[in-house]
Protein: DUF3311 domain-containing protein
Organism: Micromonospora deserti
Amino acid sequence: MAAPEPEAPSAAPTRAKDKSPWNWLLFIPIVLPLIPAFFNGDSPRVLGFPRFYWLQLAYILVGVATTTLVYQMTKKRGGR
């Protein structure tokens, strides 16, 4: 009968310890596109595109800007 192998230390992922309030800003690009009142219309048109299409591109820019801001404000700054 083979002896059981000793268990290695648990490599279970730990919960993130970053409790920064800046992380709450990440809800903006999630919730903003879910508000149907923004899509309820055809005008204004930008360069001939109805509101729905150019608003989708604007949401991408909002998401990138928000993510960049949160990253810059929460990244660890190591003392070199």
